[in-house]
Specification:
Elements lengths: L3 H8 L8 E5 L2 H7 L8 E6 H5 L7 H19 L7 E6 L2 H5 L5 H6 L5 E7 L16 H8 L8 E2 L1
Parallel strand pairs: 1-4, 1-5, 2-3, 3-4
Length: about 160
Amino acid sequence: MKTASDLRTLAEQRAWDKEIDVWLGTTDGVLAALPSGGNAPEVHQFDLLDLIADSDSDDEVALSMELKTALRARLQALLPASENRRVLIVKSAPLLVHFNLGLHEFFDWFCSDRAFVLLQIDGIAEALNLPQEFEFSPRKVVDYFTQPGLAKNVYH
């Protein structure tokens, strides 16, 4: 796992590899880790939940398709102008796992040498005490995103 200082160093580069990274921690924490001012990249954030908040569907397959379509449209709208760089902070990243969407939409429609994605996962702890009926496993989400070919780095 890499540190906030490593993330700052990455964000200060003039160009990036086509990559997606994971931030373990709060929005305030990631914003504090990113550079600001003069030559810093633009930072934009959005919540995946907002993309399906108005859906009235109870069907998992339909919701998955709605999320995928809305995500593609949002990513295309967020591409930076040719001279700008942008860091995109994506909240509610576990939805990507729940709906089995993976990260293809990000690679296909957003990531470039001037745009990279940080999937924010809040509240990860090795010994997280959740009720048994709660199906979300933060550790499994991190493990999913850190498989080869998905997220490149994990920062905290």
